[in-house]
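Researcher: Sequence recovery benchmark, item below. Answer with residues only.
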C-alpha cells in the first residue's frame, strides 16, 4: 500500500484512543528528573508489546528503540521524547490527575512520550512500506542540569552509526490543537545559572559605620549587572540577564546581615559572547564588592547550549507538515525564544529540528501555560503529534536535504 498522508492520518485516528490512554497513565504517574524508573519500564513494556527492539537503562532511565524498515542500512534518523515531570502540585480536577503528591507533568513530557509511542506504533505497522531505520530516544532528565540529553550523548546514543538527523516536538498551549509551529535557525537560548554570595560585616542597624553592609553592596550590584547586556553585549545578539532571587542570611528590621545571596540566569545565542559574559559578571561582581569593603563569591553553573534548527531540514519539515495537515495556515512561523531546552545538545552535533505541537483549545478553556499547576492539553493534539511525526519520519527517510 502506498503511504499517503490520508493513510497515515487514518492510522493515527485508529490508535488515538490508545495514545490517550498512554498519556493519561503517564500523567497520573509522573516522576521527577532522573527518577523515571517506572516511566521507563512502562515505555519499554509498550515497545516490547509492539515488537520493537530496544535497550533500557541508557544514561540512567533512558530507553532507546529501533524500528527497521526495508533496506534498514539505507538511512538512520532519530526521534526524541523526554519523560520527566516537575515538582508542581497539580490543581486540575480531571480523572487522570497526578497521583503523586507535589509532582506533575506540567511541561507536557507525558504528551511527548505518548505521542512518540504512537508514532512508533504507526511506523512499526508500516515498516514494510518504507526504507531505512528509525531510532526512538526516550530521554530522562530534561528539566534538570546537566540534562539527560548530554548524558545519553556521552553514552553513545548518537554513535555507531550516527543518525542523519534528529527531530523533537514540544507542547505549545498558545497554539490550537491540530497546528504546529516552526522556526529555522536560532530558536532557543543557552541557559546558565548565576549564584552570587556577598559577604560583609553584620551589626546593628543603628551603627552602620561599624558594619560593611552586604545589602547595600547587593543593591548596587543588581543595578550594575544590567550593563552586562545593555552596554557589553552586541545589540544584535539576543541576551538576557535576570536576577530572580535575593535573600539575606537571617536578620531583622534593625540588623545588618553578614551575607546576602543573589541568584539569577544568563541566556544568549552566541557561545563566544556567553563565555565572555561569564567573565564580565565575575569581574564586575568581585571588583564592586571589594570596592565597597566586602567580598563576592561568584559561581556560574553552565547549562544547556543554544538550540538551532537546521534551515534546510526545517524547510523540508514545513513542506511535509503542510502536506499532512492539509492547510498552509496550520503550520505557523514562531518567534525566537529565550527559554532553554536540552534538545539543544543534539542540535549542536547534527542536523536537528525542534518544533512546537499545538495543544490549546480556548473554547474549552485549555490554555494554561506550561510549568503551571493548571496546565493541560486538548487530547486531539495526540492524534496530530503521533501521525505527523510518523509522516515526517517516512518523508525524511526518502528525501535527503543539502546541508550548508
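Model:
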Amino acid at each position: 500500500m502506498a503511504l499517503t498522508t490520508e493513510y497515515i492520518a487514518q492510522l493515527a485516528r485508529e490508535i488515538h484512543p490508545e495514545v490517550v490512554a498512554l498519556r493519561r497513565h503517564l500523567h497520573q504517574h509522573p516522576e521527577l528528573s532522573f527518577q523515571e524508573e517506572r516511566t521507563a519500564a512502562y515505555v519499554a513494556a509498550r515497545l516490547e508489546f509492539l515488537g520493537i527492539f530496544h535497550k533500557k537503562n541508557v544514561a540512567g532511565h533512558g530507553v532507546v528503540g529501533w524500528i527497521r524498515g526495508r533496506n534498514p542500512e539505507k538511512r538512520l534518523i532519530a526521534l526524541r521524547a523526554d519523560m520527566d515531570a516537575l515538582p508542581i502540585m497539580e490543581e486540575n480536577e480531571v480523572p487522570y490527575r497526578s497521583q503523586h503528591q507535589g509532582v506533575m507533568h506540567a511541561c507536557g513530557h507525558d504528551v511527548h512520550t505518548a505521542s512518540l509511542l504512537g508514532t512508533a506504533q504507526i511506523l512499526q505497522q508500516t515498516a514494510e512500506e518504507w526504507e531505512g531505520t528509525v531510532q526512538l530516544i526516550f530521554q530522562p532528565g530534561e528539566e534538570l542540569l546537566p540534562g539527560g540529553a548530554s548524558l545519553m550523548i556521552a553514552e553513545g546514543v548518537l554513535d555507531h552509526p550516527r543518525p542523519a538527523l534528529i527531530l523533537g516536538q514540544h507542547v505549545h498551549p498558545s497554539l490550537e490543537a491540530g497546528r504546529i509551529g516552526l522556526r529555522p535557525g536560532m530558536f532557543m537560548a543557552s541557559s546558565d545559572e548565576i549564584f552570587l554570595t556577598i559577604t560583609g560585616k553584620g551589626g546593628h542597624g543603628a551603627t552602620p559605620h561599624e558594619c560593611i553592609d552586604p545589602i547595600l553592596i547587593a543593591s548596587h550590584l543588581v543595578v550594575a549587572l544590567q550593563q552586562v547586556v545593555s552596554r557589553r553585549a552586541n545589540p544584535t545578539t539576543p541576551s538576557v540577564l535576570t536576577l530572580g532571587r535575593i535573600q539575606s542570611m537571617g536578620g531583622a528590621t534593625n540588623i545588618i546581615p553578614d551575607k546576602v545571596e543573589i541568584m539569577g540566569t544568563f541566556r544568549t545565542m552566541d557561545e563566544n559572547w556567553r563565555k565572555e559574559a561569564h567573565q564580565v559578571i565575575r569581574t564586575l561582581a568581585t571588583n564592586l564588592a571589594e570596592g565597597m569593603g566586602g567580598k563576592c563569591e561568584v559561581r556560574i553553573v553552565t547549562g544547556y547550549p543554544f538550540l538551532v534548527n537546521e534551515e534546510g531540514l526545517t524547510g523540508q519539515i514545513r513542506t511535509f507538515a503542510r502536506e499532512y495537515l492539509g492547510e498552509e495556515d496550520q503550520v505557523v512561523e514562531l518567534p525566537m525564544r529565550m527559554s532553554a531546552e536540552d534538545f539543544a545538545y543534539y542540535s549542536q552535533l547534527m542536523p536537528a529540528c525542534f518544533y512546537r505541537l499545538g495543544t490549546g483549545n480556548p473554547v474549552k478553556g485549555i490554555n494554561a501555560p506550561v510549568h503551571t499547576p493548571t496546565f493541560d492539553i486538548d487530547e486531539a493534539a495526540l492524534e496530530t503529534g503521533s501521525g505527523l511525526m510518523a509522516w515526517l519520519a517516512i518523508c525524511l527517510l526518502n528525501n535527503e536535504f543539502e546541508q550548508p
